[in-house]
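Fig. S4 source data, part A: sequence.
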Amino acid sequence: MILEKIAVPLSLAGDNLGGTLHNQCLHGDLQIVPDAPNRLISCEPSPQARLVIPQLTEAHCHLDKCHSINRLDPIGGDLPQAIEAQAKDHKNWTETDLQNRIGKGFREAVASGCGATRSHIDWGEGTQPPIAWHVLGDLAKDSDMIVQRSALMGIDKLADSVFCAQVATQVSRSQGGVLGGFVLAHKDRAKGIDDVIKQAIHHSLPLDFHVDETLHDTDGLGLIADAILRLKYEGPVLCGHACNLMNLSGDPLARLIDKLLKAGISICALPTTNLYLQGRTDGTPDRRGITRLRELEKAGVPIVLASDNVADAFCPTGQHDPMAALHLAVLGAHLDPPFDRWLPAITSNARHAMGLTEMSVRTATASDLLISNATSIADLISGREALTSIL
């Protein structure tokens, strides 16, 4: 198969793809041969060249909560208010309701071009997986999309070592199971973090934490990094939110970033929910509820962007589309051009953070590639032209 007049963003090309470099893209005719690396046959850059990228990766969403906004009372507020409002909706979470809502969100992720998705699932009080865990698992069986399920509960619950071990055992028995927790100003959070990491080591599970989802001073990210290094955990670790990194600058920020690098932690920003819930005042917010993406990227910490909440108490709008999350982050975090450097946040960096093999245009199969009539990376991020499978 040969696709003529193609442009591939340099950050997603892979080694030795070939082609001619122009405006952060390699241009040429893309030759795709089964069981062999893809390559670009060099030709003059074309202003009509179509962009080709690997499938998108949705590293953080909440399919169990999505599309519940229309039945909630009028809401608006900060994170605790959103948690309270969503908790009241749990009485509606029947198997049929979950199948309908999770299925809708699932199809939206597929339609946006996602080849892999990690959804957090509220675990509840017991040691057995909740209904939503099984509903999403059943959907995954009939899909080509890689699906990971991350158990979500307060880190204080996981400070009970017996409970933590029982949950970890259940997660380890599930295809695509991920262990983690929600870390804020919880009691016994340091012990809970240790227990989770020890169980992840024992069961060879990836780790994923909601951490420091606030603009107040908390210490979760530092505790996680210290524990990862002390306990010598070597699996993938994704920490979502980390909003209060905005409170650090200078040497304190540099020291924490150095720990993140040594611990191999990826940081995921969730611009829709971060911007909607954080920094609330009586009027227009004057602080941005988003982490220090530019500083992290400059230091070499893998940054990830994802959709988070969609049409629920935590974000009344949103969409299951990592490219839309990148678009919002460009505006909310001043991710300036050249835009090629930010695309890994929704592709290769995101796969790395999920413990998946990183994918480039050079190494992807035809079924893993997306094409767009966008003729620049800026147009692609803006969503002016759709991404579709090349097949």
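Fig. S4 source data, part B ends here. The chain has two domains: 2-55+360-389, 56-353.
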